[in-house]
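Subject: Sanity check before I submit

Could someone independently write out the structure tokens for this chain? I want to compare against mine line by line before I put it in a report. The sequence has 282 residues.
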Amino acid sequence: MKYVIQVTLISVAMMLLSAGCQTTDPAPRSSIMLATTTSTYDSGLLHYLLPKFESRYGIKVEVMSLGTGAAIELGKSGDCDVILVHSRALEEAFVSQGFGTERYDVMYNDYVYIGPRAANALRESEDLSRALAGMVSYMEQNATSFLSRGDNSGTHNMEMSLWPKAGLPDFADKAWYLSIGQGMGDTLVAANEMGAFTLADRGTYLAMQNNLPNLQIVFEGDDALFNPYGIIPLNPDKHAHVEYAAAMLLVEFFVSEEVQADLLAFGVADFGQPLFFPNASK
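---
Independent answer below. Compare away.
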């Protein structure tokens, strides 16, 4: 889709200009609230990008870093202006229910299974089913755990959807399965301390790997581990108080050619590879 965003931004600009010229209308707030998944925060991506937006538009972006499910619930209640999350089914439902105006592709990375360094043999698995079967065998033989975020985040929902595909529909009943109700960064720290397995987005793992000496990637590369991110402005028809004009400026910022290039560069100097890949289709 060649976003209608270009036309929308003309309207946005006119709204901002008119707000400055008319005394009868309230001026736009000098800040907006972005509810977003923990991976965009823990990876350092928002610290990298948002100062440029704030300097350009004079609009402060206040960030609420949550699991995707919690960020979407915040949007449903109208307690933010825009969401940046990564659970496609939940995002599409959010828009179809009228809480957001439209979903825009921003970027993607992938999920990776993280585990103890002693589990080297799992790295040779040819597909996801064999990798998970090997992981279960390792955990049962070595009294090791799998740590689930358990927070209704995009990562948590992805993790739960993958066990049945590997023939493990009763995963939550297993002694090795621990649901800890934490964000991505805290889950990785706990897995490192316990020598446990977990599922993580690649960007957060790479950003934290120097502080995770006991962990390594034990499986990666399966198509099922694809992880797209979308940005959605809240619908002012649902919540009249939201700063839709300013939220659309943030949307346009993220899908612009300039920021898409910044995304591809983010992480390369430190990790030898991008943490996210641009995915906007303007």
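---
OP: Matches mine. For the report I'm noting this point. The chain has twelve helices and ten strands.
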